Amino acid sequence: MTVTTDLVADFVRAANRLPQVSAQERQRLLERGITVSGAMRGLLLKTGKIAPFDEALESVVIDIASNIVEMPDETVSKALLALAGQIRALRILNREPPAIRSRSGASTP
């Protein structure tokens, strides 16, 4: 498995066994997810691809991470799964070749 696949698997595992995951580990996972998501989006932009950006997800996850002690397990679990999905989608987009622009401005794969 790749590092990204391992990270997504870590998020899903943590979401499924959240009561056994410490608050510090929850916070670390959420912060790591935001960092990786941002780096992958940056890589998309560097390679000339369109990078999707879910500002609401990022701001909510940052808020959850900063208030991790008060957050219910279900909220943290949903945030971990949302990050896992976003990172997976960004990984797929990073593996696709960039679209080639024709002279008319239309993009072709």
Can you give the helix content as a percent range?
55-70%
Show unreliable segments: none
Order of helices and strands: HHHHEE
Instruction: For the record, give the distance between the C-alpha atoms at the N and C termini, rounded to a whole number.
Output: 27 Å
The counted number of beta strands is 2
Count of the domains: 1
Shape: globular
Widest sheet: strand order? 1-2
Overview of this structure, please?
- The model has no long low-confidence stretch (mean pLDDT 86).
- 67% of the residues lie in helices and 4% in strands.
- The chain has a two-stranded antiparallel ribbon with strand order 1-2.
- β1 and β2 (107-108) form a beta hairpin.
- α2 runs parallel beside α4 (73-95).
- The chain has one domain (3-96).
- The protein is mostly helical.
- It has four helices and two strands; from the N terminus they run ααααββ.
